[in-house]
Amino acid sequence: MKYRLLLMLFFCLPLFTMAQVGSDDDPRTHFVGLANGQKVYAKRVQLKNPFLKDSYFLLDDSLRFPMSSVRYYQNDNGFFLRISDPYDRDDFAKRTISGRISKFYVSKTFYNNMYSPYGGYGRYGYGGFGGYGYGMPSSRNIYFFTKDDGPLQSYNYENLREALSDNPGSMALLNQYRKGKYVETGMSIAGAAILLYGMSQTFKSYQNGQGGSVAPTVYVGAAVISIPWISGLFKKDKITQAVELYNYERKE
């Protein structure tokens, strides 16, 4: 009889150790955070989206939680935080920077709609944009951030300037970002003007029967316009540097 009880306990033990509520120092890295404040750990966390049925989270292939009850989760794909758009469509934004300032993004599809009262953006937009879902679709990432696990804010210069205002080094980088944007805007305007001038000169030469070559200013204008874009490929954005510096110095 004693051996039978030990054998039953051996086979039942995994059922009690799976997907339990653990502490923040739990060695397992997969978990879901529930709306009631509980944090449930598991060996595997999956988000299921069955056809014509409500989405849900499946932990260790046995325990289910409706998506509406989960505030955040983490699995092999990273850490995700629950968000809602103006149409109350629940979604999860992925965290790309972790710290006192945490950065998140979500990919959304927009539909170009000239008849939309919201400026041509399709439905399921963020930041007050909406529409009716007509036109050609296009996808883009929408970025957010939180400070000290506070409310989500749009990831832009104005909001970050206020959030990072207590760090002089981060503020200096933000000022460099703003000055750089002024320079980029000026170069883009100058390049566009040179390009248009070159195109007009090329058009005139064709009208006068002198066609055969494109005016050199066309290439100059195109090169000037492309300089900000090319330079951005080889250097880290000043806003990202400001956030990383803020997080690094606050750890010490």
Structure overview:
The chain is α+β, with helices and mostly antiparallel strands. It has an 8-stranded antiparallel sheet. Strands 3-4-5 form a 3-stranded antiparallel sheet, with no helix packed on it. Helices cover 37% and strands 26% of the residues. Residues 1-22 and 114-133 have low confidence and may be disordered. The relative contact order is 0.08. Strand 4 and strand 5 form a beta hairpin. It is built from 5 helices and 11 strands.
Approximate shape: elongated
* Regions with little confidence, pLDDT below 50 for 5+ residues: 1-22, 114-133
Order of helices and strands: HEEEEEEEEEEEHHHH
Residue share in β-strands: 25-35%
Distance between the termini: 59 Å
Output the radius of gyration: 27 Å
Number of helices: 5
> Helicity range of the residues?
25-40%
Please provide the count of β strands.
11
Mean pLDDT across the residues is 76
- What does the largest sheet look like? 8 strands, antiparallel
| Class inferred from helices and paired strands | alpha+beta
Strand order, largest beta sheet: 2-1-6-7-8-9-10-11
Which features characterize this protein?
8-stranded antiparallel beta sheet; 26% strand; 3-stranded antiparallel beta sheet; 252 residues; alpha+beta; 37% helix; 5 helices; single chain; disordered N terminus
